[in-house]
Amino acid sequence: MMKTSPAVFAVGREYQIMVPVAGNSLFWVEVGGECFYDEQNGIMRSICSTHRVSVPMEILDKAGEYTVCEREIIDRKPYFPETEDTKKTTFKFCSVPQDNARVYHMADTHNQIAAPVKAAELFGKIDLLIMNGDIPDHSGAIENYDTIYKIADALTGGRVPIVFARGNHDMRGYFAEQIAEHTPNFNGNTYYTFRVGSIWGLVLDCGEDKDDSHAEYGFTVSCHKFRARQTEFIKEVIKNKKDEYKAKGVKHKIIVCHNPFTYIQKPPFDIEKDIYSEWAKLIRDNIKPDVMLAGHIHKLFVSKVGDKKWDSLGQPCTVISGSDVKENYHAGCGVVFSKSIEAKFYDSNGEIQDIKL
Question: Whole-model pTM above 0.85?
Fold first, then answer.
């Protein structure tokens, strides 16, 4: 029933093990002798196209493997429902190492699979995959969400963690309002923190890239208040810094956001200057991250703080714009977190560019 191998998403201090399925089935995961179910208020979910099971990070990290269990539904009648026998598949799992963590960042694949996978494979071994928005071309077809899982399958095979951020194109189409059912989130929110190995991260979501009233959206978005809620979220993260970016063992701090929100923009994209400036100041003055990873603008570049060409709102740290896309072409960014941070751009034509950080 699984269309691909599972994707293991890092959210907060848990892994959300998710997989698209081809039909109605019951789903759970066994880790270290304990079962974790895809259930809602005690009811096992079956009428869904993407399953999700949450597992505490420390349990899966310690076990080093997990077993996916499925029972296909024959007839979910009110009494004595019928199911097929349980099918089990075991996957090895490797947590992110404390040192020399190899992280690959991609964004803006826009439904392409072969080209972004080819670029990522040029980077080599991956300890963490970051999928930073606009992986589907839009949310107008439910099948577009399969792109996320096909890329994850090719590059991780369910064996290493993934960090996922939503992009602005993900907000467009009939199924955009259902994206939280098919992608990782924290209590329904598409912004959250995560901790893998010695890396702590903050995922932010700018929503759409023009004002809510823009005709392109046809009254289907309400992003201004959504962004304002994230301002309060950032403040809460700072308030809880001892359990977040100041926690024991944190060596590297990163921001993951599809839209590099301090980037110099022209109308109609020059929105929310007050909110984005406040985000930047809060992060710059308190969190002091090492790097921000972004996509959205389909360019490969590095912007240092105060860069006159790219920085208009006081970016909080070095920003790597790590994605480019054309027909049958994609470029992403590989980052190695060790005592220092090293990064390179990789593209599907086999080209590699060194990055000076």
Answer: yes
